Amino acid sequence: MIKIELLSETNFCLESLDSYNRKQNVNKVYRRIDGEYALVECKYTEDWDLSQKRSVAKQISSDDYITYIALENDTVVGFIGLLKKLNGPYMILDMMQASSEYRGQGVGTRGDFYDKKNERGRFATVWSDIC
Fold it and tell me: How many domains does the chain have?
């Protein structure tokens, strides 16, 4: 069973993403064009090597982020990273990832990822369309 937890020193370390499978064939991405977001064709494969996994692990465990991780058997299978610095009254969802073998299983759309209260006492409200 997948559980959602706030990232902490007890459930995450720099090696926690070493077995994370971040491989995805991307066909379309959102780009800002004339002040509006548009879905445009942009084909590439994203495949993180160990160095990139460790870099992301360091980033999401830094003081700049509020990060929630999805765990199955104490293994990270997904995460969201919210920037602590507000953009006006809003929090920015900077990262939202699900390990390849868990995509399409609702890891990224689980309500308990989104109903967590952050340390400032505000609720982080986010949504996504996964293409």
Answer: 1
Which backbone phi and psi does 56 adopt, to 5 degrees? Answer: -65, -40
> Residues 71-99: pLDDT tens digits?
999 999 999 999 998 888 888 888 888 88
| Angle value at C-alpha 113, between 109 and 118, nearest 5 degrees | 150
Q: At 76, which CATH number?
A: 3.40.630.30
Residue type, 95: M
- Phi and psi torsions of 91, nearest 5°: -95, 150
Inside any domain, residue 34: no
Q: What is the pLDDT of residues 22-62, one digit of tens each?
A: 988 889 988 889 988 899 999 999 999 999 999 999 999 99
Q: Is 41 helix (H, G, I), strand (E, B) or coil?
A: strand
Kindly state whether residue 119 falls inside one of the protein's structural domains.
no
CA-based nearest residue to 69, from 8, 126, 121, 130: 8
For residue 12, the enclosing domain spans: 3-21+49-114
